[in-house]
Design brief:
The protein has 494 residues and is α/β, with parallel strands linked by helices. The protein is built from 15 helices and 20 strands. The chain folds into two domains: 289 residues, FAD/NAD(P)-binding domain; 142 residues, FAD/NAD(P)-binding domain (3-Layer(bba) Sandwich), CATH 3.50.50.60. Helix content is 33%, strand content 16%. The strands form five sheets. Strands 1, 2, 3, 4, 5, 6, 17 and 18 form an eight-stranded mixed sheet that branches. α1 packs across α11. It is globular and about 70 Å long. It starts with a strand and ends with a helix.
């Protein structure tokens, strides 16, 4: 694969496909999408563990330009979402632009060519603009536990599910009680011989209230797009309203906390077990989870809750922090991802350093999308572009729109090289820090994956509503970029 394109997109999950759709709508046809795997789908291709599903309403978890009337219910299964992304890519005619099984090996800014030089296993590619759409939850976080590597049975991360491992009737340990574990444990409890759940920190869990859509519902959505649009608008408004409880509004947070505690008390009778499952930090500090099945599973005889972290592995014996020992046949690590240290950052070399070096004290950007020292580069779903209250797809769409506007602005101004002013990035970083300072994510008394431990800054979440993010990006008028002469003015290649 050789040649030159206007835009190279790295990643074919929601962000990468959304970026490709935005370029198409803008009439920009010179682009390719590099994808390391054999199919599109990102998170929803990688995560195939039992029970995997979205915890955002399905009709809000899709592209605004590609509504899908056929979701099975209020919350879509993981395989449905994967199919949706495959169908969108095929329907938009992206097949010819997709470079599947083509991982990015290195990207280096070439000042003389005013372009990015990309290395892949299929050869080199020159791109005037680089869009990193690699996702934030792609690299499993494997905890450092003494003896873990010596465990003799099946051992794998939930995001790298071993389809050959037969867990039926087995004694299975699940390490972690985050979003994946809450979905996974009830499924394992039905088939495994016994499940031992290692909980370092309990989660706030609220009712899921999953609703299955009937054939009539789906037919109605398909027959009348206005009905589907109205449902999406309602779901959007509900999501925006949820921001108050997640971000620390005292009344909203107290109400939501009461709902979570009532849910716990209704589903777990044992006072000691309830106490072990009750968080001691502010509501919203960690990701709030949705489940109607987790508490009943943990309260059943099929599951043993170990309310301490796993600290050592001795053969088939797992040792908790309090010294309790558990004999198991298999271990599933539901331990999250390297969210604040993106693996792709080591591969990207800007004007003076790698992206990993630039982010060595935490991810920073302007508009959650562009980074000083990395000309003509955009990052989707990166610094401060996640949400704790609504659909992350909404954020990706806004970022893709910002990219298209920035490209158009550069064309209009005769500015083929768009360099972000360092002071613009710093001001945006300071703006985020001020907005986040009093929120539960910073001051709520927990350790979460939103905050970078190296800096103590909120690195992943946007500390506002989707409306606010849309307005913030809309206000960016190009002043964030340095004025750069055209190559002809510099005497370079036109």
């Amino acid at each position: 694969m050789t040649g030159r394109v206007e835009v190279a997109i790295v990643g074919a999950g929601f962000a990468g496909i959304g970026m490709a759709l935005a370029l198409q709508r803008a009439g920009r046809e010179s682009f390719v999408v590099l994808e390391r795997a054999a199919s599109v789908g990102g998170t929803w291709r990688e995560n195939v563990y039992p029970g995997v599903a979205c915890d955002v309403p399905s009709h809000l978890y899709g592209f605004a330009t590609h509504p899908h009337p056929h979701w099975s219910g209020l919350y879509a299964r993981g395989d449905e979402i994967h199919r949706y992304l495959q169908d969108v890519a095929a329907g938009a005619g992206l097949g010819g632009r997709l470079r599947l099984s083509t991982p990015l090996l290195q990207a280096r800014w070439d000042a003389a060519a005013a372009a990015w030089q990309l290395d892949t296993p299929d050869g080199a590619l020159t791109a005037e603009t680089l869009v990193l759409a690699c996702g934030r939850l792609t690299e499993p976080q494997i905890p450092e536990i003494s003896g873990l590597e010596t465990f003799p049975g099946p051992l794998f991360h939930s995001a790298r599910w071993d389809q050959d491992a037969d867990l039926r009737g087995a004694r299975v340990a699940v390490v972690g009680t985050g979003a994946s574990a809450v979905q996974l444990v009830p499924e394992l409890a039905r088939t495994a011989g016994h499940v031992t759940l290692f909980q370092r920190t309990p989660a706030w869990i609220v009712p899921r209230g999953a609703v299955a859509y009937s054939d009539a519902d789906r037919a109605g959505f398909a027959a009348d797009p206005a009905v589907l649009a109205a449902l999406r608008a309602d779901l959007y408004a509900e999501g925006e309203a949820r921001f108050a409880s997640r971000s620390g509004d005292p009344v909203a947070a107290a109400d939501a906390r009461a709902v979570a505690l009532a849910h716990l008390h209704a589903q777990v009778e044992d006072p000691a077990l309830r106490a072990a499952l009750t968080p001691d930090y502010a509501f919203g500090c960690k990701r709030v989870l949705l489940s109607d099945a987790f508490y009943p599973a943990v309260a059943s005889t099929a599951v043993t809750l170990e309310p301490h972290a796993l600290t050592a592995v001795e053969g088939r014996t797992l040792v908790a922090a309090n010294g309790t020992r558990h004999e198991v046949d298999a271990v599933v690590l539901a331990t999250g991802f390297a969210s604040t240290r993106q693996p792709y950052a080591d591969l990207v070399h800007g004007e003076a350093q790698t992206l990993a070096d630039h982010w060595s004290t935490g991810m920073t950007s302007f508009a959650s999308t562009v980074v000083a020292g990395f000309p003509n580069m955009f990052v989707l779903n990166g610094p401060n572009a996640s949400l704790g209250h609504s659909s992350s797809v909404l954020m990706m769409e806004e970022q893709a729109s910002y990219v298209v506007r920035a490209l158009a602005h550069g064309d209009q101004e005769g500015m083929p090289v768009r360099r972000v002013r360092p002071e613009a990035e710093q001001a945006y970083t300071d703006e985020i820090a001020v907005a986040a300072a009093s929120t539960p994510w910073i001051a709520g008394g927990c350790h979460n994956w939103y905050v970078d431990e190296r800096s103590g800054r909120l690195a992943l979440l946007w500390p506002g509503t989707v409306d606010a993010f849309r307005a913030r990006l809309a206000a960016a008028d190009g002043a964030e970029f340095l004025s750069t002469p055209t190559p002809a003015t510099l005497g370079g290649i036109p």
